[in-house]
Amino acid sequence: MCVRICLNSNLMCFLLSTGAYRVSVQTGGSTTIPCHYGQKYKTHVKYWCIGYYLHSCSPVIRTDSTKSTDKTSISDDINQLTITVTMTDLGTEDSGRYWCAVEINGVSDVRTGLFHLSVIPELYVDQQEVTGDEGGSVIVNCYYSNTGNVNWCRIGSVSCVWTISGTPDGT
Question: What is the per-residue DSSP string for 66-101?
């Protein structure tokens, strides 16, 4: 059996810093960010906003109204308890601090994820598609200019690789 890993900007280097994810994307690229939430928030409105603090952030997109703009879309999978935000054609002006949040009676909201998005021209992988045999290994080179630790995460999973090498499922 053959395993295929497609590497566009959906599988990327993630950096972890004090409970917040740092997402780096190449200029002109795109990213898909999953945000998990609790069962009790299944019927609530979820949204994606930008700003330093959750209570003062500016909504970019919501699940109850505009579900897409020119560059951003949001979907809510109530079976997986996950909202998925996709941002495309990213420029340096899109860099910032983004929040996934759940609206609670329009008054007090709950944070489900905090992401620091950096759009930089220096991030890239040398191959967009890698193929390997099940049980085997593949090498993915991620080139970046930031300092710090590099981590790999699988979209749709809460587990990441916190070392220089490994697999997105933690083995």
Answer: --B-SSEEEEEETTTTEEEEEE-S--GGG-EEEEEE
Question: Distances from the Cα of 114 to the Cαs of 3, 6, 51, 110, 136, in angstroms?
Answer: 31, 25, 10, 11, 34
Nearest to 47 by CA among 32, 56, 29, 35: 35
Helix or strand holding residue 114 (H, E): strand 110-120
Q: Read off the pTM.
A: 0.63
Residue-wise pLDDT for 60-110, tens only, equals 999 998 788 889 999 999 999 999 999 999 998 999 999 998 888 766 677
Q: Which residues pair with 22 in a beta bridge?
A: 15, 116
Q: What kind of fold does domain 13-161 have according to CATH?
A: Immunoglobulin-like (2.60.40)
127 sits in the region (left: phi over 0; alpha: psi -120 to 50; else beta) called: beta
Other Cβ atoms closer than 10 A to 139: 9
Report the b/e string of 37-51 with b at 16+ CB within 10 A. beeebeebbbbbbbe
